[in-house]
Amino acid sequence: MITLFIDFLKFEKRASVHTIKSYQTDLDQFQKYLLFQYELEKPQEAKAPMLRSWVVSLMEEGMNPSSINRKIASLRTFYGFLKRKNVVSQDPTKILSALKTRKKLPAFVEEKSMEMLFLPDTFTDDFEGVRDRTIMELLYGSGIRLAELVSLEINDLNLPARTIRVFGKRSKERVVPISTSLANLLFQYLALRAPEEDTNILILTNSGKAVYPVFVQRTVGKYLSAVTTLSQKSPHVLRHTYATHLLNRGADLNAIKELLGHANLAATQIYTHNSIEKLKKTHQQAHPKA
């Protein structure tokens, strides 16, 4: 049944590769637990106490509550699928409750640090330097996800209109505006990108192959290390930075939601906490009785 469920995610829900891998990992771990602890081969035959026993075992192993909550969510989605298919009559996950977790504010880079990053002497003028700058400016200048960046194609660009077409989670399409400077940078990059390369993928490695996630992560880490001491130096930090800077400069929260491709406003509202924290610091520094 796990295989059928994964196929459902792939072909009907059109979930991302990362999401599918997470579900596969969680359900494989659960299946192994059932086999070891209860000699039960079929997850669809598991009873509610068995599910709770697995969650308790994860807690006893010291697993992070947020990771456990992800596994609980995987079970809920899986058994919800089984119930819709009439494989099970009752949903055994109803007895499970999410664990309390500490809310972490999104890490972001300060505006002054981003200005330092894009100083003229940071990047070289050859293909590699312009390509690296394009990666950094696309992530910061459009807020797109890592997976969205590596899948961008040349025909997704509309440089005269200063927009890019992005395919987000579940292949949901959105159009994101970009600045004139970023559009000009993309013109420069395309002029250096070998036109005879047998791929439409926009961002290429030095050898002309499509970039891959680890390549982008290393590139981002390399350049962010020069301007910030944040422990996290990932493409997603640049996405957080994009959203936080927009909000700090007065952008409407609903507009940011559309730009980021969030399904609902709740996912976007976390950025308001960063703005509130900034206001608190300003108040503490400036008010006589703070």
From TrEMBL:
<dbReference type="InterPro" id="IPR023009">
    <property type="entry name" value="Tyrosine_recombinase_XerC/XerD"/>
</dbReference>
<comment type="subunit">
    <text>Forms a cyclic heterotetrameric complex composed of two molecules of XerC and two molecules of XerD.</text>
</comment>
<dbReference type="GO" id="GO:0007059">
    <property type="term" value="P:chromosome segregation"/>
</dbReference>
<keyword id="KW-0159">Chromosome partition</keyword>
<dbReference type="Pfam" id="PF00589">
    <property type="entry name" value="Phage_integrase"/>
</dbReference>
<keyword id="KW-0963">Cytoplasm</keyword>
<feature type="domain" description="Tyr recombinase">
    <location>
        <begin position="104"/>
        <end position="284"/>
    </location>
</feature>
<feature type="domain" description="Core-binding (CB)">
    <location>
        <begin position="1"/>
        <end position="83"/>
    </location>
</feature>
<feature type="active site">
    <location>
        <position position="145"/>
    </location>
</feature>
<keyword id="KW-0131">Cell cycle</keyword>
<dbReference type="InterPro" id="IPR050090">
    <property type="entry name" value="Tyrosine_recombinase_XerCD"/>
</dbReference>
<dbReference type="InterPro" id="IPR044068">
    <property type="entry name" value="CB"/>
</dbReference>
<keyword id="KW-0229">DNA integration</keyword>
<feature type="active site">
    <location>
        <position position="169"/>
    </location>
</feature>
<dbReference type="InterPro" id="IPR004107">
    <property type="entry name" value="Integrase_SAM-like_N"/>
</dbReference>
<feature type="active site" description="O-(3'-phospho-DNA)-tyrosine intermediate">
    <location>
        <position position="271"/>
    </location>
</feature>
<dbReference type="InterPro" id="IPR011010">
    <property type="entry name" value="DNA_brk_join_enz"/>
</dbReference>
<dbReference type="GO" id="GO:0051301">
    <property type="term" value="P:cell division"/>
</dbReference>
<dbReference type="InterPro" id="IPR002104">
    <property type="entry name" value="Integrase_catalytic"/>
</dbReference>
<dbReference type="Pfam" id="PF02899">
    <property type="entry name" value="Phage_int_SAM_1"/>
</dbReference>
<comment type="similarity">
    <text>Belongs to the 'phage' integrase family. XerC subfamily.</text>
</comment>
<keyword id="KW-0132">Cell division</keyword>
<feature type="active site">
    <location>
        <position position="236"/>
    </location>
</feature>
<feature type="active site">
    <location>
        <position position="239"/>
    </location>
</feature>
<dbReference type="InterPro" id="IPR013762">
    <property type="entry name" value="Integrase-like_cat_sf"/>
</dbReference>
<protein>
    <recommendedName>
        <fullName>Tyrosine recombinase XerC</fullName>
    </recommendedName>
</protein>
<dbReference type="GO" id="GO:0005737">
    <property type="term" value="C:cytoplasm"/>
</dbReference>
<dbReference type="GO" id="GO:0009037">
    <property type="term" value="F:tyrosine-based site-specific recombinase activity"/>
</dbReference>
<dbReference type="GO" id="GO:0003677">
    <property type="term" value="F:DNA binding"/>
</dbReference>
<feature type="active site">
    <location>
        <position position="262"/>
    </location>
</feature>
<keyword id="KW-0238">DNA-binding</keyword>
<dbReference type="GO" id="GO:0006313">
    <property type="term" value="P:DNA transposition"/>
</dbReference>
<dbReference type="InterPro" id="IPR010998">
    <property type="entry name" value="Integrase_recombinase_N"/>
</dbReference>
<keyword id="KW-0233">DNA recombination</keyword>
<comment type="function">
    <text>Site-specific tyrosine recombinase, which acts by catalyzing the cutting and rejoining of the recombining DNA molecules. The XerC-XerD complex is essential to convert dimers of the bacterial chromosome into monomers to permit their segregation at cell division. It also contributes to the segregational stability of plasmids.</text>
</comment>
